[in-house]
User: Fold DNA polymerase III, alpha subunit from Chloracidobacterium thermophilum.
Amino acid sequence: MSLREIRITRVTPVGPAPTYNVTMRAPLHNYFVNDLLTANSHSVCYGVLAYRTAYLKAHYPAHFWAAVLTSELNDSDKVARYIERARAQGVEILPPDVNISEHGFTATAGRIRFGLMAIKGIGEATVDAILEARAQGGPFRSLFDFTERIDPKTLNRRVLESLVKSGALDSLPGTRAQKFAAIEAALEQGLQAHRAAAAGQVSLFDTLAADSDQPPETELPRVPDWTAEESLAGEKATLGFYLTGHPLAGFRETLAAFKSLSYAQLAGQTAGDTVSMGGVISEFTVKNTKKGDRFAVFSLEDETGSIEVIAWPETFRRLGEQVADGAAVLVTGRLEIEDGKPTRIVAEAAEPLEGLRERHAKSVMLRFAADALDTAQLEKLRDVLDRHRGERPLIFVLSLPNGVEARLRAHHTFSVRPSLALVEELQAGFPGCTVVLQ
Assistant:
């Protein structure tokens, strides 16, 4: 049978299977490749394996990447890298879920469900306990139902924190912040439930529950929800990467305006080029030179990868508190390349992405429909501008009924200080206004 006749029509997991090394009796059985002794039988096996693997990757990408990811469960760096490759192939990665996820990554309807064993801080005993409780009692109904059904020996505060931060408990009622605030109470209630069960005790609630479909649930505390940044930080800490979003998502226009290169685009640059890259700082470390001067080394990560950045003493002194773990910044510096791969940026400057466009704006343009500015609106606009007086010129662009645009430059007394507060106040107070920072 030739390779061209092989066609995979179905993928059915069957578990491990034995493999065999075929021994061939022939004069040309063994030969040398790159000074290594090899065999024709090996070459044929590797050729068939390579063909089948490539076929799976092309036609069953979810199954292919689920298998690859499961094989690297304990290496978060590789997991993050393979997930980006799977996404680039159009495969959606679903977050972990205690009511759906298995030990490893699983393919479902062309998507991949995150495996529980890939969450940092979750051991195999805990995952076994979760799957066993789910198989015996069905889906978990709440955080407290979860802690009551899981063996306390496999569940502690650190494990429950990781489950909440990773999003594995998102299918249960309440926000991540509420469940995180209720961890101690949930663990205590779960411990009491297991002690009572071991002692053969039946509580009043258990008696009442016998006459109802579900026992009464303990209410979660009322606390403010986490910000998007806090939720993403939790995912990064427990999964090794951002799963449901990225801190840079809200800065894409800013990065484009400042001609920021992504990590993937750095590969097209030349060693020694001055480049700008926006990203999130991690692994921030301060070190000392032999002379005792302080400098910083950190990773700068965007949605395509990460690169090391070094800020030597003089630069580090200028940057001050603008560089720290978790900060979203635009770094400008000299690119270093080794073996054709970008390896480091020697920083010359770094600025927080928050408010970057406002800080560098040379003027502020306001677009209005001409008939939208009556006397009351003009007075309201004047009050807003008075609160943001500055040195940047203000330009009005008025759309007239006949389709013509009139451009007016305001008197210098109405010059403003560009800021996020100004933009937000204009957008909130004048829904028909478009604010353009130039």
Remarks:
- Residues 58-204+216-229 form a domain with the DNA polymerase; domain 1 fold (CATH 1.10.150).
- The first strand starts at residue 30 and ends at 33.
